[in-house]
Amino acid sequence: MISIWDLANPQLREIMVYQPGKPIEETARELGLDPGAIIKLASNENPLGPSPKAMEAMHDALERAHLYPDGGGFCLCKAVATKLGLAPKNILLGNGSNEVLEFLGHAFLNPGDDVIASQYAFIVYKLIATSFGARTIEVPSPDYHQDLDGMLVAITPKTRLIFIPNPNNPTGTLLSQQAIDDFMSRVPENVIVVFDEAYFEFLDCPPDTLRFVREGRNIVVLRTFSKIHGLAGLRIGYAVGSADLVEVLHKTRQPFNVNSIAQIGALAALEDDEHLRETKRVVDEGRAYLHEQFAQIKIPFVPGTANFVMVNVGDGHAVFEKLLRQSVIVRPLKGYNLPEWVRISVGTIEENEKLIAALKKVISD
Predict the structure, then answer these.
(1) What average pLDDT does this structure show over 7-22?
(2) What's the confidence (pLDDT) of residue 316?
């Protein structure tokens, strides 16, 4: 009997299915725990929940859920563009910024092409490249920092895309403006650079990559409503690029790829400065607390710049399993070839304290 794998695209054999942070409901079901007592610090979600303004707007929008959404997201694109000092033609919406990664693959990758990403960078870059039959060149990351000089050296005649997450997930490290400017002054114009800025709003002095969009360079800047705006469940993000580049990406997009409730929620969240400021305050204080506590209990960690911290616990999967039984979910990093590490999202102060108490108990057992 013929195997379905004989019919499927051969590169799919190499892809490992992406494993997200373990859901609260699944943990409760498997371990017989009270879901209300479980804290999830695994997926870098907003500890305060969604923007209140977004919730109100989405509730009102449900009465119109029988209508198809605006396929191009005119109102949201215009609002994002205004906030960034650009034009709506520079903005493309995605079902999460991850969908834009797929658009980039459809638009620019063919079997045999190369993409470049840093070692320990967001694993989805490699998954996308592999699904289009492209090779991922992983540049080593000394001290868990991205090596932009190494990326330039790694460029081949077949290189089409370079992925640069900033801050990087899962390491939490940040590239400086000077490093980015130097890199962009040397990258060939036929290579498209993708700056993934999912955690941009958590930074005090974020590098300016939009200057390269204004210059008409071949770059794409990705941002999302999943993190600081607290709308991860809606799956909505966006890309910023030159008008010509965005026009190309639009041709790869399915009609109505972003639902109407998500568009309306994101539009309201974009204007909810109070929620954004309070989230950043809670995350800044929580991250400082976690850094202090990890130092006190002598657990190695990489100082974070976003809403998570990467921590060396010796055996990441074992500690992950033990913490589950303490009703705490973190993210083991074996899939990133970091088996000794876990990634811990910053929660509320109560959640952070519960995490530290559970971690102390687990590592002393």
Answers:
(1) 81
(2) 96
Sign of CA dihedral 108, 110, 114, 120: positive
Question: Among 2-6, 87-91, 121-125, 141-145, which stretch is predicted with the lowest mean pLDDT?
Answer: 2-6
Decide if pLDDT at 15 tops 80.
no
Given a contact cutoff of 8 angstroms between Cβ atoms, the answer to whether 74 and 88 are in contact is: yes
Q: Is residue 228 predicted with pLDDT exceeding 80?
A: yes
105's CB contacts (< 8 A; 6+ apart) are 128, 129, 131, 132, 134
Beta bridge partners of 136: 115
Which residue shows structure tokens 């290579």?
Answer: 191
Residue 39 has pLDDT above 80, yes or no: yes
Q: Is the pLDDT of residue 10 over 90?
A: no
Tokens representing 16?
A: 């490992």
Burial class (CB in 10 A: 0-12, 13-18, 19+), 133: middle
143 — alpha (psi -120 to 50), left (phi > 0) or beta? Answer: left
- 0.90 surpassed by pTM: yes
Q: How confident is the model at residue 183 (pLDDT cuts 50, 70, 90)?
A: very high
